[in-house]
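2024-03-11 09:14:02 INFO worker-7 job=invfold-0412 stage=load source=structure_tokens
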């Protein structure tokens, strides 16, 4: 009997595992970096051990520190969560050598499936359909650049370059033509090396506009293996999943059975135990091809839990204890529909730049069929050191439309103040007609959302400015100055993300009129309490959630979120405008490449520096054409958001 579980992870997955472990009677141990000392998973565990500084290499990837924490606390089993060391065969082996139980598959299965090259060869031998491609010259080392270039000529374009190790879209490139290949190989190898410490690449024929459908499998050490339906993860951005649902609106019962049996065959072929996910690409004719196998619990496992009524973490612990699977294949039933979205601290209107800072308020909406898996709460700081996912928001319904409605409402009513999120972007996806019809492929976001308003900065409307002024005009938590004071007109100056705006605000009883230039708007105050304002807008009663921190005001209403800063009583300040030539870091991160030198001539939009953050490469581009004056960025530097990296001097006009 296992008694004490150490969770070798952080954030929402650590919280998720702790909840089930506690319910089953296990004592729990959290590990944390110095940056996570006050994190939610630390608070919820019975015991916790600091394993190093904020950098993941020195903490959550430090296997020795994690094993030492297990020894200190007397933990007898370790759950790896997902990410970090969850698919590290050496870590799984070290746990067993220490006399502990690893809540996951055998290390040889992890090692095999951790290599896209070797796993694809193994699946071909097991009779599982695979995408045509090139995995290297033989069973030895991976392909060289020249071998990849030669193989590409036989495979044809378009094709996919993929890092053999890891996933999450890192080290992956779609290559449309031969003249793009060499540079993409260089970039893919660099990104794979940064993310996984392994720059081995494979090539696959690109399946155009496929569905990404994955099968949840489970196996025990008694030779039993089952599949628990499928998840459709086709809605992706840069090969990273944005929306996941179960069951897939595209999969027929016959296809589900065929894919499920192929997934079980894949698991048995590698001597699997525990939870695993076999990912497939499915073309428009419902032909399916093995993509990869993730030897761990998936981020999106809650949708499977909601339609099967099973706790997959509990299943993992059963298997780890040597018990057989609790259900046979014919006992697994699917009920209703579930959809999950990943709520991130990122700015869709600014290229999905990760956001950092204090999460002043995080209040999940309440309602039937809703589930939130999160590792944060109000007051936490979103760190640049880790993935910026705040929560997984999941809705279940008796049918797909009911799940969609519930999820849209949950996103609209969840209050998130302090950092910009993708909340509005997610709600627009779920409400989209193409998604609603179940027709979204992996090309959906690139095609249907390429010009979506949520992906570009939107100036505040006079209606939103009026609501901002209404909240700022309220004193404290009361309604002083609204009921009995005579009509007054006062100037107000608000700073938005891109501009400063001068308003005229007129109070008359419970009515507020706001003017900005030639635009005018009127609102009536209905009621007010801290964080919630009720107004009558054009005859319709509306609610506005808000949070005020000093001069900064965060608002959520009309399906949107925005923030303003009250600078009415501050001296005028110059704003840094576009095209200034001051090229700044878009986020906290590390400089991994500098592509220019002082004195170089550059064009607007040209990439000057490659910044690595959140395990992804981000190009930093010139905002105007000119000459490189100051070059302050150096390869290997750690920089802060807003730090000046390059100064581009405007060229003087040539003499006539």
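2024-03-11 09:14:09 INFO worker-7 stage=emit residues=656
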């Amino acid at each position: 009997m296992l008694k004490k579980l150490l969770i070798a992870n952080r954030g929402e997955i650590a919280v998720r595992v702790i909840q089930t472990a506690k319910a089953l009677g296990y004592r729990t141990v959290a590990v944390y970096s110095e940056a996570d000392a006050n994190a939610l998973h630390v608070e919820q565990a019975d015991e916790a051990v600091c394993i190093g500084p904020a950098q993941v290499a020195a903490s959550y990837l430090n296997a020795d520190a994690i094993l030492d924490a297990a020894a200190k606390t007397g933990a007898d089993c370790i759950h790896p969560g997902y990410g970090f060391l969850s698919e590290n065969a050496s870590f799984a082996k070290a746990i067993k050598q220490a006399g502990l139980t690893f809540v996951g598959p055998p290390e040889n299965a992890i090692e095999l499936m951790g290599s896209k090259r070797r796993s694809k060869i193994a699946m071909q031998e097991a009779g599982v359909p695979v995408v045509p491609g090139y995995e290297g010259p033989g069973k030895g080392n991976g392909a060289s650049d020249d071998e990849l270039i030669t193989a590409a000529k036989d495979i044809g374009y378009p094709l996919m370059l993929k890092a053999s190790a890891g996933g999450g879209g890192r080290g992956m490139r779609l290559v449309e033509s031969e003249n793009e290949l060499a540079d993409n190989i260089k970039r893919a190898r660099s990104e794979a090396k940064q993310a996984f410490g392994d720059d081995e690449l494979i090539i696959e024929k690109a399946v155009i506009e496929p569905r990404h459908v994955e099968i949840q499998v489970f196996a025990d050490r008694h030779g039993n293996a089952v599949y628990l339906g499928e998840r459709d993860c086709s809605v992706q951005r840069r090969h990273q999943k944005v929306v996941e649902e179960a069951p897939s609106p595209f999969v027929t019962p016959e296809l589900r059975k065929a894919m499920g049996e192929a997934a079980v065959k894949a698991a048995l072929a590698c001597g699997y135990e525990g939870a695993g996910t076999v990912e497939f690409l499915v073309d428009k004719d419902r032909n399916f091809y093995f993509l990869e196998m993730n030897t761990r619990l998936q981020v999106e496992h809650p949708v499977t839990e909601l339609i099967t009524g099973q706790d997959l973490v509990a299943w993992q612990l059963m298997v780890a204890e040597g018990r057989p699977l609790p259900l046979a294949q014919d006992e697994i039933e699917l009920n209703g529909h579930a959809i999950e979205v990943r709520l991130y601290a990122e700015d869709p209107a600014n290229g999905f730049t990760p956001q950092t800072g204090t999460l002043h308020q995080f209040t999940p909406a309440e309602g039937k069929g809703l589930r939130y898996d999160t590792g944060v709460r109000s007051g936490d700081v979103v760190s640049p050191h880790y993935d910026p996912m705040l929560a997984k928001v999941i809705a279940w319904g008796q049918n797909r439309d009911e799940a969609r409605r519930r999820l849209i409402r949950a996103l609209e009513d969840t209050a998130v103040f302090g950092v910009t999120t993708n909340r509005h972007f997610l709600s627009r996806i779920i409400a989209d007609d193409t998604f609603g019809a179940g027709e979204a492929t992996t090309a959906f976001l690139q095609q249907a959302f390429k010009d979506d308003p949520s992906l570009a900065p939107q100036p505040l409307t006079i209606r939103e400015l009026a609501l901002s002024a209404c909240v700022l005009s309220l004193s404290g938590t009361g309604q002083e100055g609204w009921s009995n004071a005579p009509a007054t007109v006062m100037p107000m100056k608000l700073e938005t993300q891109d501009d400063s705006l001068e308003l005229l605000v007129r109070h008359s009883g419970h009515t507020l009129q706001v003017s900005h230039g030639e635009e005018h708007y009127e609102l009536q105050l209905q009621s007010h309490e801290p964080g919630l304002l009720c107004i009558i807008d054009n005859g319709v009663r509306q609610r506005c959630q808000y949070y005020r921190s000093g001069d900064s005001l965060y608002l959520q209403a009309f399906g949107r979120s925005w923030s303003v800063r009250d600078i009415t009583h501050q001296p005028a300040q110059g704003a840094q405008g576009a095209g200034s030539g001051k090229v700044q870091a878009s986020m906290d991160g590390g400089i991994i490449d500098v592509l220019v030198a002082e004195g170089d001539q550059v064009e607007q939009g040209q990439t000057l520096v490659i910044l690595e953050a959140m395990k992804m490469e981000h190009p930093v581009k010139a905002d105007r054409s000119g000459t490189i004056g100051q070059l302050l960025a150096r390869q290997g530097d750690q920089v802060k958001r807003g730090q000046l990296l390059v100064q581009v001097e405007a060229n003087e006009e040539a003499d006539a």
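2024-03-11 09:14:09 INFO worker-7 stage=report msg="The two ends are 87 Å apart (CA to CA)."
2024-03-11 09:14:10 INFO worker-7 job finished
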